[in-house]
Amino acid sequence: MGDGGTTPSILDLGPQALIVARLAEEVGEEQLDAVTPCPEYAVRHLLGHLAGLATAFRDAGRKDFGATTDTDPTSRLPDVTPGWRAELPKVLGELAEAWRDPAAWTGETRAGGVDLPGEIAGIVAADELVVHGWDLARATGRPYAPDAAALNAAYAMLAPTAGDPDRGIFGPAVPVPEGAPLLDRVIGLSGRDPGWGAGG
């Protein structure tokens, strides 16, 4: 993304963070226990995961290391807190603001207990927001159109891993038809079936 490692390209995570915040705002209390495309996650767990990853990547962008950046997100089942409706949009906004600072995209940082270049961490954050935004929209029956820049960044990150047998947290890619929409290709590359629906 950068030009010889001197000036990183900065992706504005704000539009995608806002899309996710608006999806979360529309979640009804009766939907918190609904299933999602994430195995073992109900909507409440997905929302808790979104809050946790937003906090972790906010602090990764700030280079503010500690428990939020050092904890493996798979170490426990996340859940919503009593104040999640106010807290989630707040931390999503803070995430976006942290990554508007060019310094966030330089040097090394840490998220989920993994050290990685800031430039890569920012793209991982975009991918997380795109894919989990889709998860939330599908689980709650909402339309979903992710931010185009974030979607393109997610595809650029995931596409090279399509044939990698050791895909870590992503799991095996789900094949999608040739010429499928870019969102479907990203979702397939994330190990999800783009045709997933809560009712079937």
Helix content: 40-55%
Based on Cα principal axes, name the global outline.
globular
Number of helices: 7
**Total count of strands:** 2
Oligomeric form of this entry?
A: single chain
The largest sheet is: 2 strands, antiparallel
Question: How many distinct domains?
Answer: 1
Return the string of H and E elements.
Answer: HHHHEEHHH
Describe the structure.
With 200 residues, the protein is mainly alpha-helical. It is 46% helix and 4% strand. Strands 1-2 form a two-stranded antiparallel sheet. A hairpin with a 2-residue loop joins strand 1 and strand 2. The longest helix has 23 residues. It is globular, with a radius of gyration of 16 Å. The protein starts with 13 loop residues before the first helix and ends in an 11-residue tail after the last helix.
